Structure formats: C-alpha cells, structure tokens
Amino acid sequence: MSRRSQESYLWDIADSCRAILEFTQGRSFSDYKEDRMLRRAVERELSIVGEAVSQAARRFPEMEQYIGDVRQIVGFRNRIIHAYADVDPAIIWGIVRNEVPPLLEMAEALLGERP
C-alpha cells in the first residue's frame, strides 16, 4: 500500500469537485436526469471524493475538522457504490449544487490554490 500525502488526497478531492462543476455547468436538473452519461460521470467523481475523504480522514485525522461531516460524505460514497439503484437523482443534484462548491473551496484553500 502506498503512502500518499495529505496534499494528494486534497488534490483528488479538488480535482473531482472541479470535474463535477465542469460537467454540470449550464445544465439543469432536467438535463441531469435525462443524460445517463452525465449522471454516471457525476456519480463516479462523487465516489472518488468519498474515497479520498475516507482515506484522508483515516490517515490524517486532523483533516476532519476542515472537511466537515466525513461520515456523511463517506456514507454517500458507499451508497453510490453499493446501493446505486436506490440513489435519488434529486439528492445528487442537491449535493452538486450545495455541497460540492464549498468542499472545493476548502480543498483549494488547504492546498493554497485560491487567489
């Protein structure tokens, strides 16, 4: 098992958040519901976020104070992966619009990438 740095997990979180926002920019919830490829792409990136948060919090417990509700993020990742048939597109869309931007902001701030 490779030992990754705290920064590498933050980079993964930021990169996936950026991808989610890029994929959904200018798109509506209706677009999201009707576009299978878009839904799958967003779900994949959210699963990466959840896995990165899980591993970062386990290896660097102090990060939990910056990340926020780690259990909720990891729990949602598990739901996307293991209970994918029960994931409500409206919940994902709400996460994309309300949770991803502040998570990206936090990751960028910790990485020193913000202007």
Automatic annotation (TrEMBL):
The keyword Nucleotide-binding applies. InterPro entries: HepT-like, HepT-like_sf, HepT_RNase_toxin. It comes from the Bacteria. GO terms for molecular function: hydrolase activity; nucleotide binding; RNA nuclease activity. GO terms for cellular component: toxin-antitoxin complex. Keywords: Hydrolase, Nuclease, Nucleotide-binding, Phosphoprotein, Toxin-antitoxin system. Belongs to the HepT RNase toxin family. This is HepT-like ribonuclease domain-containing protein. It comes from Rubrobacter radiotolerans.
